[in-house]
Amino acid sequence: MPFNDYETDATELLETYDFLMKYIVIGEAGTGKSCLLHHFTHNSFKDHSQHTIGVEFSSRTIRLGEKRIKLQLWDTAGQERFRSVTRSYYRGAAGAILVYDITKLSLIASSFPSSRESFQKLSRWLADARALASSHLVVVLVGNKSDREEEREVEWAEASRWAAENDVHFLEASSLTGDNVEAPFMLAARSILLSIESGALDPEKAGSGVSYGDRALRRVNSSSRLSFGSLSRGQRRPVKLKVKNWVPGSQCC
Amino acid sequence: MSLSQTPSSSSVNERKTSWTFQARNPVSLRLYKVLGTTFDDEATRESLATLSELYAKSVTAKGKETQRIDTEEDGDDETSAKVDGPFFVEGVPGESAARARKNLRRDMEMKLTEGSQHFLKVLSEVDEKLVALQTHVAAMRTSCDEAEKQLQLTDEASKSLLERAGNLREERQEVEVKKSIVSLFLSRFTLNEEETEAMVSRDVPVGKRFFDAMDKTERIREDCRVLMAGEEGPTKAGLDIMTSTSSHLEQSYEKIFRWCSHEFLQIGRDSQLEVSVTMREAVRRLRKRPELLTEALTSLSQTRQNTLQTSFLNALTRGGPSGLPRPIELHAHDPMRYIGDMLAWVHQAIAAEREFLEGLFGLKSDRRMVGSVRAFGEKPSEEEEWIRELMDLAVGRLCVPMKIRVQQTIKSQESSITSYRIVNLLQFYLHTMQNTIGKDAILSKALEELTEMAYKSFYDSIEAQCRGLLRAGLELDDSSVTPPIPILDHAQVLREIMSVYQSSILEDASTSDQIAGFRKIADVMVNPAVEMCIISAEEKKKVRHKWDMEVFVLNCLTYLLSVLEPFDFTSEAQKSIQGILDTRVEQLTDDHYHNIMVDAGLDEVATTCEKHDNSEPLSHIPSTEPSQLQIALGNFSQWLSGPEVVHSTRLSSLSLQRLHNKIHHTALTRMAKAYEMICEQVRRKENRYEAASTLLGSERPFGQVALLWQIFGLREDGL
């Protein structure tokens, strides 16, 4: 596994967790959303992947510092015809993984590109997600198929600029090699935890896309205040993401 | 020294005198020998020392006693005086020695007597003591005898005791062994207090201790069963153990049951579900008591149903806290979003529920994605059945509020396109749910019903539309032959419905499935449109004779066909329209041929020629008399130089240029053939035309068919 900087334990059957977060995975058809998710949940590349029909569900528990977070992942179909169906699943999502294909500029850009609207289609996805999901939706833009460097059409810097302008996190990943596959999910989780810590997000409230798990509740009961000591420590010892994909000026950390 | 030597020499002297008497002859020899003897040996010295001491003593310490002895001895005053003498003063050195020499024997004897007397005295004392001792000894002996007797008795008595003690010790050992066996047995076959408490008491929570105790009980029962299966058959102990453990076990199952019911009540109320290890274990164990499990799960199911229903209603009417996300009902005006949001909510609830139940039954998730096809095998596992049933019930409760809302939405739709969109949305979810929770689930059934209802509503709506279309008729004063507005509107609706259908087609659906899926819509929507065109055109034709019905119908049909053509699944409808179209084209072609023949003036001639039965020569028939023929040919020649040859005014109203060309060319081809036929007939001798060639050659195309083909710009083979 090329990306094992996190302690992960996907195989554990029975998982107690501190938080439950709902994510949606969105983006144009054929950008590899399902494959990315498949790699994340199964740790292997999904061969001969068909177009997703409607939405599909999977889940995985991750560990971030001392926190265990259960992710409910809703993989949506990218095809236009399912748009009306998939939009209903944005409701109450805490995180969105917006995927594009770095080898296909046409999939995100409009047919007559101007500098302002170069990523017009991405903007549309983003606007949809922001309008329909939780108000604190954390979005991570993922440039998929980073293994196909020679076919690259979307420059990293360009996407990075777009991400910074639109206040979303950004990184590139490959669902074929598994490179950086976990990072977007971790990044979003981390960002959400931070906004819980800062009080901006309240997991007690329905619709925030986040809720306490049994584990956290037990802790709450034993000590009146939920402590994020582990997270603060995490800040001193930052999680080792692939820093080359870091967006300068993005709001995380 | 001199003192000591002196007495000894004197004694030797005495002895020498005595010996002189005993042995006269050898006296000298003897004397010599004696004289030669040295008294320097140890014994002599010692005796001399003793003597010396004795006298010294008598002088210093024993003077008084000496005196007393002296007085006892009568008549020997001198000796006593002499003895006394040295006691006080030894006036002359060696005086005592001299006295000693004199009195030695007496002194000795006196001493001896004294000693003897002393002895006697002392011994008598000893004797007395001895007598006393003897009495004591005798007494002691008696006592000892007695003691011995006692001892013997005791010994005898203790022997049996010892024996008993030995026996007892042995017994004790045996008992010890038995005891250890029994305690081993007990520890193996009975529960200790703690374990019993863990199993039975309400104070001990369901947890590791409790489960351990249960495990032990199970093990005991298992061992016990093995024991009782032996040759001796069931023993009482075995039966007792079985009875007591079974009662404990039952109580523990009761306890699990109570605990589960309580926990279920708790977690059932949460919207987010999580299964603890203990709970999973409890459920696993309770599966051995299906009736208890059923009861517990029934209560769980009840709570879950209520909880889910409440949260669904909340999502519908109240939305999230502070209204975000907005309540689903807020979008009731947008039917697609409204229904979509509702069903998506249900779908997501199913995913969470499924995960919870899988956790509860310890089912390892197959990591199949919800929504993707689940294989419903022939024989699902017991857990799978439980899960399915619980899921079904939990989600089933949501059907009522969902159904009412969906039904209302369906009923309130006026647009058939929206209706159809709803149909597709419902069908999509029906498909998804059937794959997720099974075909027989309440939700699937409800969706089936709703889909059916939506279909009905949709069909009603398009049927009404079609009836309206038929009723509408055509504008009588409109002389145009293009498709009328009602048809255009209808086609637009059809087009939209088709594109909705197109988008709903699954990628792996076969073409025949695609066609079959659309057949009914095509039947409802396409055929009436065709019918409407034809019927109402005929109606109009009756009133407005000049109006070109044929062209109108063809235009309508080609238009409808053009609407259908982009969609492969309409091939059947296309075919049927094409069929009608072909017939119509043929009719129009006939009509057009007839028209141009009339226009060209050949019609009568051609008809007569065709009908000619050789009964009389053609030239004798009035319509084909040479003069008439001449006129007809003249007309034809004129017509040939007109514009109608390349372009038919009438057919130019056909919206499809291709069709115009086709019909016109076919008519011209037939015209050419008719001309050829006329020429042949005229040239036949039987028809008795004089100067037939001249007759034909007087006007274009001069009886030359090939020339006619050229004029028409066609080739004889019809290409």
UniProtKB/TrEMBL annotation, chain A:
**One Pfam family hit:** Ras
> Which InterPro entries does the UniProt record give?
P-loop_NTPase (IPR027417), Rab_GTPases_membrane_traffic (IPR050209), Small_GTP-bd (IPR005225), Small_GTPase (IPR001806)
* GO cellular component terms listed in the entry, alphabetical order: membrane
PROSITE patterns, per the entry: RAB, RAS
- Keywords assigned by UniProt, alphabetized: Membrane, Nucleotide-binding
Principal location listed in the UniProt entry: membrane
Q: Which family does it belong to?
A: Belongs to the small GTPase superfamily. Rab family.
Put simply, this protein is called Ras-domain-containing protein
Task: Specify the species.
Answer: Tetrapyrgos nigripes
Automatic annotation (TrEMBL), chain B:
Which InterPro entries has this protein been placed in?
COG6, COG6_C, COG6_N
| Record-annotated Conserved Oligomeric Golgi complex subunit 6 C-terminal domain positions | 236-696
- Organism's domain of life? Eukaryota
- Coiled-coil regions, chain positions: 144-178
Q: How does it sit in the membrane?
A: Peripheral membrane protein
Q: Where is the Conserved oligomeric complex COG6 N-terminal domain?
A: 96-200
> What Pfam families does the database record attribute to this sequence?
COG6_C, COG6_N
Which GO annotations describe the biological process of this protein? Answer: intra-Golgi vesicle-mediated transport; protein transport
Principal location listed in the UniProt entry: Golgi
Q: Which UniProt keywords apply?
A: Coiled coil, Golgi apparatus, Membrane, Protein transport, Transport
Does the keyword field hold Electron transport?
no
Which portions of the sequence form the region Disordered? 62-85
Entry keyword annotation includes Lyase: no
Q: Where in the cell is it found?
A: Golgi apparatus membrane
Q: Write down any Gene Ontology CC term.
A: Golgi transport complex
Query: What family is this protein classified in?
Result: Belongs to the COG6 family.
Q: Which PANTHER family match?
A: COMPONENT OF OLIGOMERIC GOLGI COMPLEX 6, CONSERVED OLIGOMERIC GOLGI COMPLEX SUBUNIT 6
**Functional summary from the UniProt entry:** Acts as component of the peripheral membrane COG complex that is involved in intra-Golgi protein trafficking. COG is located at the cis-Golgi, and regulates tethering of retrograde intra-Golgi vesicles and possibly a number of other membrane trafficking events.
Oligomeric state and interaction partners are given as: Component of the conserved oligomeric Golgi complex.
Name of the molecule in the record: Conserved oligomeric Golgi complex subunit 6
Species the sequence originates in: Tetrapyrgos nigripes
